[in-house]
């Protein structure tokens, strides 16, 4: 008879432990989601910063190229013709 009384007590204890484990797992999942959200924001901010730097650098290089073409238009024309010739040779193959 003693064995019958301990079985429900053990079952209840196992349920309590399972509930505690489920609550702990739920808390860990919530913490993980928060960490992932913060990481996503950090990566997004980093990407925006990199995009800004690349955009600024591209604008600067474009302006330098425009200035160089204005200073030496014949050289720019010769370079463009040479590049076009090379593309033409490569496209035949």
Compact summary:
This protein has 93 residues and is mainly α. It has helices spanning 2-71, 73-92.
What does this structure look like?
With about 90 residues, the chain is an all-alpha fold. The chain is built from 2 helices and no strands. It has helices spanning about 1-70, 75-90. The longest helix has about 70 residues, at about 1-70. The radius of gyration is 34 Å and the shape is rod-shaped. The termini are far apart.
Ranges where pLDDT stays below 50 over 5 or more residues in a row are none
N-C termini distance? 93 Å
Number of continuous helical runs: 2
Strand content: under 5%
Work out the number of β strands.
Answer: 0
Helix content: over 70%
List the helices and strands in order.
HH
The general outline is rod-shaped
SSE class: mainly alpha
Question: Main sheet, how many strands, which sense, barrel?
Answer: none
Question: Whole-number radius of gyration?
Answer: 34 Å
Quaternary structure: single chain
**If you average the pLDDT, what whole number results?**
88
